[in-house]
Write a structure and sequence with these properties.
elongated; mainly alpha; 1 helix
Length: 71
């Protein structure tokens, strides 16, 4: 028996092709021990930038999947 919820998505035509570059972002530099508040602030900016790139890539993947579903 199989029950599908209203939120389930099915892709009708085969495999969705997503560019590999959307699954990768530049690694965040991690220092073993920040020595100043400036280094902590720079790390936080790097971390936020990585988060934004990841979020952008996920939105791009979502658009690709939506376009594939619409046909």
């Amino acid at each position: 028996m199989c029950i599908n919820g209203c939120a389930s998505r099915q892709i009708n035509e085969g495999k969705v092709v997503v560019p590999k570059q959307l699954f990768w972002i530049e690694p965040v530099r991690v220092q073993s021990e920040p020595k100043s508040q400036d280094e902590i602030a720079l790390f936080m900016l790097d971390l936020f930038e990585a988060y934004e790139k990841c979020a952008l890539n996920l939105r791009s993947v979502e658009k690709i999947i939506d376009a594939q579903e619409r046909g």
